[in-house]
Design goal:
Helix content is about 40%, strand content about 15%. By secondary structure, the chain is an alpha/beta fold. Strands 1-9-8-6-5-4-3-2 form an 8-stranded parallel β-sheet. A 3-stranded antiparallel β-sheet has the order 7-11-10, with helices on one face. α2 runs parallel beside α3, α3 runs parallel beside α4 and α6 runs parallel beside α7. It is globular.
């Protein structure tokens, strides 16, 4: 398939065919998904947030056995083992890093000193400016429609992307609520140089999300998710029994300690990987209501490019 993005700066930066990034997601984007996304012409990302360094090492080795295309690792900087994750990734030959959930100053220079390309995820124009000042090569500007951890300011993608594009001189990757070719075209019209898709890639055959979770995403309605836990760690969740418990604690202004106790350990694993749809934490984006199939990564990318090209012809 001929690429409709012949001059994309991020295709050149990452050495990929299409300026489409498969987001790093906890319990969902392991070696199989990342390799499949890369083989389809995108940049596949292993989500390190749910992995201890030794497990991350195993996933990188497996992914490299499944593809000879570029791969990246997403490292959430709030994780206490983030430095070990970075060092393991560097040792295994990873040279593209997406950092998130922390200050871009923390490891950007360290990574650059090791010859890596660094992208940081941000949720506001002000934070994006700090990312550029920290020396990153590009930013992911993520609107609050996105699943998982999110910004507190609730800036939508449509408003966020042009503000960040206008504020920076480095490339901007649009994320949050993007799931088909129409939305990719909209992101490029707003000035983005690439797009990052999470929820759409979570609902593929190669995703490690549990079949129960995938089925729930397929059945999602427009009001199925809500940004919650803003006083602790903002996260967009699907509504279930666990979500209702979180809402009840927030209604009675519970302490952070009470919220942490409710969260406990392994809630996200229980929901997304093990398929407990009532007691698990189900992180997914608003675009879930738009998704009606479970394609392979290759089928997904072919559809995205076809849809984008059809929209582009009408402009």
């Amino acid at each position: 398939m001929t690429s409709p993005f012949p001059n994309s700066p991020l295709c050149k930066l990452f050495d990929i065919e299409y300026p489409i990034i498969q987001a790093g997601m906890v319990w969902v984007s392991g070696a199989k998904l990342a390799a499949a996304a890369s083989n389809a012409g995108c940049l596949g990302i292993i989500g390190a947030g749910s992995m201890k360094p030794e497990l991350l090492e195993a996933h990188i080795k497996k992914a490299k056995s499944l593809t000879d295309k570029p791969l990246a690792v997403n490292v959430p900087l709030l994780y206490h083992l983030s430095k070990e994750q970075i060092d393991v990734s560097l040792k295994e030959g990873i040279r593209i890093f997406f950092t998130s959930a922390g200050s871009p100053k923390k490891y950007t220079q360290y990574l650059k000193d090791h010859g890596a390309t660094v992208v940081h995820v941000t949720s506001s124009p002000e934070l994006a400016i700090k990312c550029e000042a920290a020396g990153v090569d590009a930013v992911v500007a993520e609107g609050f429609e996105a699943g998982g951890h999110n910004g507190r300011d609730e800036i939508t993608t449509m408003c966020l992307i042009p503000q960040v594009v206008d504020a920076l001189s480095i490339p901007v990757i649009a994320a949050g609520g993007i799931g088909d070719g129409r939305q990719i075209a909209a992101a490029f019209c707003l000035g983005a140089s690439a797009v990052q898709l999470g929820t759409r890639f979570a609902l593929t055959k190669e995703s490690s999300a549990h079949d129960n979770f995938k089925k729930k995403i397929l059945e999602a309605t427009s009001g199925e998710t809500l940004l919650t836990m803003k006083d602790l760690v903002p996260v967009r969740l699907m509504k279930n029994h666990f979500f209702n418990q979180v809402q009840e604690l927030e209604r009675r202004c519970a302490t952070k300690e009470e919220m942490i106790t409710l969260l406990g350990k392994g809630r996200a694993k229980k929901g997304m990987l093990e398929g407990d749809l009532e007691e698990g934490e189900l992180e997914i984006g608003q675009v879930s209501a738009l998704l009606k199939d479970i394609p392979t990564c290759l089928e997904l990318v072919e559809n995205l490019i076809r849809e984008y090209s059809e929209v582009k012809m009408k402009l």
